[in-house]
Amino acid sequence: MPILDHLPGRTLTAHGRDYLFCSGTSYLGMARNVAFAELVQEGMRHYGTNYSSSRHSNLQLAVFEEAEQLLRAQTGAEAALTVSSGYLAGQMAVRALANHGRFEYAPGTHPAAWLAEHPAATTNPPSYDAWSRQLLDNLASTPPEPVVIVSNSLDPLRVKRYDFRWTAELPTDRPITLLLDDSHGFGVIGQDGAGIISEIQVPASVRLVVVSSLGKACGVPGGVVLSDETFVAQLRRSGFFGASSPVVPAYLYAFVRATALYRQARAQLQANLAQFAEGVEALSLFDFAQDFPVFYTPLNALAAYLEQHNVLISSFVYPTPADPCITRVVLSSLHIPDDIALVAELVRSFAEHLQQG
């Protein structure tokens, strides 16, 4: 495991060797985007390096409303609220829903959306499709009590885009809240990067809450809650919101001025994804999903093979030391066509070695 004195971009240097970097979650490459960094620096000249006061302070900064207005426009949500992390966004929302009904957790739900230390675990969790069918059956056969349904928008580990057609079939005879963690999808999937909220359909009686990190695709150290105006107003009054520091204003200043950068980066990311998918599709080594730049393989030996050839991919146990290793090739907007071609060729070489025993 290399320990670095710099943040990787498309490459990194460790132990005297240069590597191509195909890991991390900076899908749009904003953490190393020079133009975005210049916008952040411009924002710091306006707003300083940090703002550690409460959003309830008698001094209000315009950039918070500017960013939340843009998020509403981009996603179509009635209301948006930014906070200092995606984890805080999830915890703030889920705790506000603590008394809104029985909680139903989808398999693999991220800890940011857990109400307790850990939702009740099952030895052999069902597939997402089986879970959603069973949920609808259970709701149809039980008294109409309030329910809070919690799920990720996708599986970023084993790379599955969930089929959310089931949400349109949710019953309308009881209060239902659907909370989705879109931290890995926001900025990448959906219409112009709007995330899962642009694809989901629920009955009018179902409250939809989407929480997300802004730190992955968007490169902003913060989080957001998207929902109806009533629920977001409730969050604004909460101690979680009032007592926590907000997003560093300079990053939101950059965010509202980076629409063209994000669009350009998404276009490059989709080109990279398509090139790599075409290069490895015939091998059947990976699970991957439409519009998502991560390629999962159960063959953990791929990581060591690629490292021998100066390519570092994502391969580590997650989420605890007792869990299995997750190995993935992660693409970003920083990669150039030659990078994609190189990794695809190395993967094909690895597959040939496997066939030869």
UniProtKB/TrEMBL annotation:
InterPro entries linked: Aminotransferase_I/II_large, AON_synthase_class-II, PyrdxlP-dep_Trfase, PyrdxlP-dep_Trfase_major, PyrdxlP-dep_Trfase_small
Key words, A-Z: Pyridoxal phosphate, Transferase
Limits of the Aminotransferase class I/classII large domain: 170-320
The cofactors required by this protein are: pyridoxal 5'-phosphate
Q: Name the PANTHER family on file.
A: 8-AMINO-7-OXONONANOATE SYNTHASE, CLASS II AMINOTRANSFERASE/8-AMINO-7-OXONONANOATE SYNTHASE
Identify this protein by name: Aminotransferase class I/classII large domain-containing protein
Origin organism is Hymenobacter cavernae
Organism classification: Bacteria, Pseudomonadati, Bacteroidota, Cytophagia, Cytophagales
